[in-house]
Amino acid sequence: MGSVKYVTKVGRDGWLLVQMDTGEKISLPQFLKVEVLRTANNHDYFRILEGVYKGKTGSVSLKAQAPPQSYFSDQLRQTGPAVVRFAPDEQKLWFGHNQNPINAFTGHSPRKTPVPKGSYPLQIPFAPSHETRVGYYTWTDFHKTWFRLGLDPMGDRFLHVGEISHGCVTVRPFLPDVANLPEGFSDLAQVAGTPYEGEIGLPIPTGAPAAGSWTDLYNYLISSRADDQSVGTLLVL
Question: Cβ distance 84 to 94 under 8 Å?
């Protein structure tokens, strides 16, 4: 019988690259629960206890050998289910006990419909997203961590940070001013005023809140658990 531990923060973005017994390499998110089966040959051997890879086994080298230091810890604690509420018409998003909304939108255009109203489980993140850009590091280290809406492994709607949304719930790191965009985001101006401007959430409704902190939302969600597949619930109002 092994010991239950959790993935600690790794590097800048919180993802731990590991070797699975099947031969593939995957990345595990911060706070993921594992069972450490043994430590030998400067490696931890583990079984994943939650998420899409639940039940699978693998190994990872120790991050330090003298003295031995593991990427897993029994000092972390998961919290209860997360609750996120999103009002798309107002571009307002609330999370936890925070009464002050942050700006978020759902993309809509001739190519994509906005996310429908309803209740969605937020899946435990399963891999770093490649549909992002380096420029987001200016605002958050965790822009690669996306939370899928629902548990369907083929689902293509997520809660994530960004300035472009293809039917996802997208938390803005900044409010776009197409006349004065940050370096690396000049492409946003190309869709303003076109049928596709809904993909960047334009026009911004009167009274919409300012951009908020994705890092704060990430820290809230990544440690939350509703069950062994989800961190909590998103309510689209």
Answer: yes
Q: Tell me the CA distances in angstroms from 201 to 164, 191, 221, 225, one per residue in order.
A: 8, 11, 24, 30
pTM of the model: 0.95
CATH of domain 82-236: 2.40.440
Would you place residue 176 in the very low, low, confident or very high pLDDT band (cuts 50, 70, 90)? very high
Q: Give yes or no for a contact between 148 and 183, defined as CB atoms under 8 angstroms apart.
A: no
How, if at all, do strands 230-236 and 102-106 pair? unpaired
> 13-30, pLDDT tens digit by residue?
999 999 999 999 999 999
Rounded to 10 degrees, the C-alpha dihedral 221/122/73/220 comes to: 10
**CB atoms closer than 10 angstroms to residue 218:** 23
Q: How far apart are CA 93 and CA 142, in angstroms?
A: 18
In 56-88, which positions are buried (b, 16+ CB within 10 angstroms) versus exposed (e)?
Answer: eebbbebeeeeeeebbbeeeeeeeeebbbebbb
Where exactly are the structural domains of the chain? 3-73, 82-236
